[in-house]
Amino acid sequence: MSYLQASNLRAEVHESPEMEAKLVREAAQGSRPAFDRLREIHSPGIRTFLGSRVGETQVEDILQDVWIAAWTAMPGFRQGSQFKTWLFAICFNKYRDYCRAQKRRPQTVQLDEGIQRASASDHATALESSENVRSLLAQLSEEQREVLDLYYAGEMNLREVSEVLDRNLNTVKYQFYRGLANMERMLRQQDKEVGR
Q1: Nearest Cα to 53, choosing from 94, 102, 95, 90?
Q2: Residue 73 near residue 110 (C-beta atoms within 8 A)
C-alpha cells in the first residue's frame, strides 16, 4: 500500500468514525480482514512515530510487536476509548520495552519530513535546526519529552496523550506547558548568547 493510499484510508476514518468503529467491532470479534484494514490505516502514523526514534530495522521489529500485541488484545478492547489512542499506548510501551532491552535512554526527535524534503541549499540550515531541537529536548525532563513527543510526533491531543501515558490530564497539561515554556526559555537564552 502506498503512502497516498494509506493517507486516504486515514482520511476516510477521520471523516467517518463510524467506519473505524465498525472495523474495530469486527476485529474484536476475530475478523482478520477488519484488523488488517485497521493495520493499513494506522501503520503509517506508528511507523513515523517510531522512525523518529529508532533505525528502520528496529522500526519494523517494534511495529511487528505492536501489531501482534494489538491482535492478541483486540478481544478485550473497550469500545469507550479511541482505537488510535489504545494503539499508541501499545506502541509507546513496546518502544519503552525496546529501549530497556537496549539499556539506553529513549530518543525523542530525529529529522522530520521537512528536513528530508529540504533543498540542497536549505539542508545544512535544516540539519542545524534539527540538531538544536534535539539538544534542547534532551535538557527537558523525561516526562516533558514524552508528552511533547506524543503531542507533536504522535499527532495526539493532550487527552489522548494522558490516556497513552496513563497520567492525569491535568498533570499532562502541566508537563506540556512547562516543557514548552522551558524550550522557549532555552531558545531565548541561545538567542542572547548568539547576540541576536
Answers
A1: 95
A2: no
Query: How many alpha carbons fall within 13 Å on the CB side of residue 100?
Result: 6
CB 156 within 8 A of CB 164: yes
**How many Å apart are CA 77 and CA 74, to the nearest integer?**
5
Distance CA 85, CA 95 (A): 15
Strands (E), 105-174: none
Q: Tell me the helices (H) and strands (E) count for the chain, helix number first.
A: 10, 0
Predicted TM-score (pTM) of the model is 0.65
Top-level CATH class of 120-196? Answer: mainly alpha
SS3 content of the chain, % helix, strand, coil (to 5): 80, 0, 20
pLDDT tens sequence across 112-138: 444 444 444 444 444 456 567 777 878
* CATH T-level topology, domain 1-107: Rna Polymerase Sigma Factor; Chain: A (1.10.1740)
Q: What is the pLDDT of residues 67-124, one digit of tens each?
A: 999 999 999 888 777 899 999 999 999 988 888 888 755 444 443 444 444 444 444 4
Compute the distance between CA of residue 163 and CA of residue 179 in angstroms, rounded to an integer: 19
